[in-house]
Design a protein that fits this description.
Order of helices and strands: HHHHEEHHHEEHHEEEHE
Structural class: alpha+beta
Distance between the termini: 24 Å
Strand content: 15-25%
Amino acid sequence: MGKPQNILSHEREGQELIENFPVSFFSHAEAIYHLQEVGIDLKKTRVADWLQTSRANVSQVIGRMQNSGLVDFGENLKLTESGDCLAKIVIRRHRITERFLSEVLNLPWADVYKEASKWENVLSPLTEKAMLEILGNPTTGPFGNPIPYSNYKEKKMYPILDAKADNNYFIEKITEELKRDNETISFLQNHDMTPGKKIKVADSGDYSITISTDDKKYFGIDKFLAKRVFVSSTNL
């Protein structure tokens, strides 16, 4: 079955944007999109923190992006329709690559994020299509985040922090913030805190929450982590 026309149109526009703009635009558009996705204020300082670069550098790139019609900014940054398309195409390729690296090449999660960041800017539509076919056309990356322009259907989910004690849940999504820290992402993988896994909340204290995954022994996670791992009450 072919792709819907609206998706093909977005992909063509995204490919044209990728061919016409510098890589620095990709990373900044992606950062703004991720900040919006995880609910962080869309300020230049936040973008600089996300990209681990200086605010002066971010201001320069954002100014050029504004002149190119990719960003609007007043009190907060905002991607234009073209900027949003560019961000989604880059993120789409990143999340497809993440799945390929983790599921086909069996790279550990701690290596997947950085490696995918190298591939996302050079992946061609032809290679993207081949990777999707090998993977079975997934709608999310390995961390549960939706692949833009896929047939992803949103589930009702909430952070572990809001889960009730003694109930069973299924992990749905790990936010981009956690993916960026090797120690945290290795902890999640080593403790089977991966999308699709069943978890149970034992109790919640002032500073940590005790959980178990797939009926294994209990362990604690802090509230920072518990706010950024999302679960649902069903895996359907």
